[in-house]
Amino acid sequence: MRYFEKTSNPEEERDESETEEQEERGGGRIKEDETRKITGLATMCGDVINYLLPIMPHPKSLSRIFLIAGVPVQTIKSSSNIKPTTGLNPNILFRECLMGSVLHLSSSSGHLTVVQILVQAGAQLDVLDRAQNTPLMLAVLEGKNEVVNFLIKAGASVMLKGMGGMTALHLATKSGNQQACQHILAIPNLPRDFIDTKDDGGWTPLVWAAEHSHAHIVEYLLSKRANPFVRDAEQNIALHWSAFSGCAEITELLLNLGSDPNSTNLYGDTPLHIGARQNMYDCVLLLLARRARVDLKNTAGELALDCCVSESSECFKAISLNIMLRDIVVKTLERTVHILTNDISHGKEVNPIQCINWEDDEGEPTDYVYVSTNCFTSYISIDQTITSLQSCRCTDGCTSTDCRCNTISLGCPYDNMGRLVPDFNYADAPMVFECNQMCACNRNRCVNRVIQKSVTEHVQLFRTRSKGWGVRMLRPIPKGTYVCEYIGDIVHDVDRYIGEAITDVEADHREDDSYLFDLDNKDGETYCIDARHYGNVSRFINHMCVPNLIPVKVFVDHHDLHFPRIAFFANRDIDTYEELGFDYGEKFWIIKSKSFTCDCGADNCRYSKTTITQTLENYLNRLQEMDRT
Fold first, then answer.
1. Number of CB atoms found within 10 A of residue 620's CB
2. Which domain holds residue 613?
3. Does residue 358 lie in a domain region?
4. What residue spans of 281-383 are helical by DSSP H?
5. Is 84 helix (H, G, I), strand (E, B) or coil?
6. How many folded domains does the chain comprise?
7. Considering the domain boundaries, does residue 82 fall inside one?
8. Which of 128, 157, 186 is the endpoint of a domain?
9. Tens digits of per-residue pLDDT, 266-305?
10. DSSP 29
11. Using CA atoms, how far apart are residues 216 and 211, in angstroms rounded to an integer?
């Protein structure tokens, strides 16, 4: 590849000197530093043009390229003295342009032809200038979407982060450039959580669009399953930012998708607090109409009414009227929801898990330690040698049957959205072997890494009417979605397992074993996960005879078959606020039926007060039949 540089011409220099003297006499002298800047840029433009002149059928059509980054045509006196040489590098950085290259300039100016030639000449696509912008980012900011499309197809990275940790998608949503968003999100095999990438402030592209009132961008991102519940560094969700911007259209979109109008941030502010503080009347009215509470105080002890800019403001009047109406209307049938804590995990999970109670006076459960990974209270030997791991060498995202990990899983278990594939055997779930640290596949693009990534679904711990604590979804999820993992203390089952060998006396006097999950090893020693003293939110998931979750044995860090991880997946579509449940199994109820019975309410419940006797008889008959055979 040959590059070009402008050759010296003494006659030309004398002409330029005379021109400058004339301009000075006329009062139009250009400052010396500006002249150097423009001349440097013009030289590069001329170099590109002289390269194109011999090979383009219509050289005159290239005259528009002289206007790179606003360079005046008259500053380039002639192209006849510009000769092809071997010295000029297309990746030269210009101090006058924030240490950016000509590709930065041509991208921001939208000169697609120049961009194409520079890329063919070897210009680097992902160079960051002093402002931490790549050529793609500049094209996005300036709305040069033809250039955006070309750079993406040429291989420019959309995952690279610039100033403040912002990607090109952050910049597109912030500037309201929907076409750029579409170009970016049309890239195949993007990581499924790319759309929710956080910048240094914890803000997602959706948050930037909400803050800047780009309703069309918000609607588009939500249609692409952007998560409106992601919290930033100060625990704000997108609804807080839409209230801040005052865009009622965005606020309504977020509320319609289940955003909680009473969600609090790090300072205890609800969206209503923020809307009142910013005097955003339309948003305040909408939040009040969607049952935003006016009695919640932030950490400074302020009600939303106290945050209004003045008592004469429309927001103050609206909130005051709402308070009066709520005082007048005695809601005897409505139970008061008490938010006991905004996060039972105390920051150990990516998404906070709120705990609420509207049934009784029970407080937040504190009789256990919240842990986000399995733990041990006694020594147990697990084969975690790295050489025992089977691994793949995939380059296609691990979607093919050639993937070694998929082969030992009896087929690829997940689709591109991270859900169980449609033909997954929900009735008798096979073991799943996810890609591991020995695999050569790209972690960000591999679809066979689901439970090893952070849980993105939002759940809530709530007090049920008759079953104690329960867990429910805060947004609808489709069948096959990974919900959470059963976490606890891995123990031997010799003395603690709920099985046939345990006598009634032992069952009556043992410590609460309702939190045991049998790992069901077929041979050798067997083990359980005990979530009684150490566990995560899954310890509160109740039994259902018609469950909406199934447990799947998954292996990630090792292939010791005695110690699978237990992952819960949705076995059908689950609605917002629907309680989660899985089948505890017959052995659990055979032991526990003396203490309590099932209250799931299913038509075919086998362990309720009215059906448990028949279930026990059937169980004993099976045992007798087995003894005879």
1. 11
2. 604-629
3. no
4. 281-289, 314-328
5. strand
6. 2
7. yes
8. 157
9. 999 999 999 999 999 999 999 999 999 999 999 999 999 9
10. P
11. 13
- Look up residue 363 and give its two tokens: 């407080």
Q: Distance between CA 254 and CA 144 in Å, rounded? A: 30
Does any domain span residue 611? yes
Residue carrying structure tokens 């609800």: 270
Between helix 168-175 and helix 178-185 the angle, nearest 10°, is: 150
- Judge whether residue 76 has pLDDT over 50: no
Q: What is the mean pLDDT of residues 64-84?
A: 39
Beta bridge partners of 535: 370
d(CA 340, CA 346): 13
Give pLDDT tens digits for 367-377.
999 999 999 99
Q: Which segments within 14-93 are labelled E, that is strand?
A: 82-84
pLDDT at 62: 39
Please report where in the chains the tokens 């006991």 appear, as a residue: 340
> Does pLDDT of 404 surpass 80?
yes
Do 544 and 377 meet the contact criterion of CB atoms below 8 Å apart? no
Alpha carbons within 13 angstroms on the beta-carbon side of residue 34 total 8
For residue 451, how far is the Cα from the chain centroid? 14
State which of 115, 134, 157 marks the end of a domain: 157
| Residue at 441 is within a domain | no
Nearest CA among 103, 163, 89, 111 for reference residue 136? 103
CATH of the domain at 105: 1.25.40.20
Identify the bridge partners of residue 543 per DSSP, sorted by sequence position: 582
Q: What is the rounded CA–CA span in Å between residue 522 and residue 499?
A: 14
Q: Where are the beta strands (DSSP E) in 414-465?
A: 432-433, 459-463
Give DSSP secondary structure letters for 378-410: S-------GGG------SS-S-STT-HHHHHTT
Per-residue b/e over 597-610, b at no fewer than 16 CB within 10 Å?
Answer: bbebeeeebbbeee
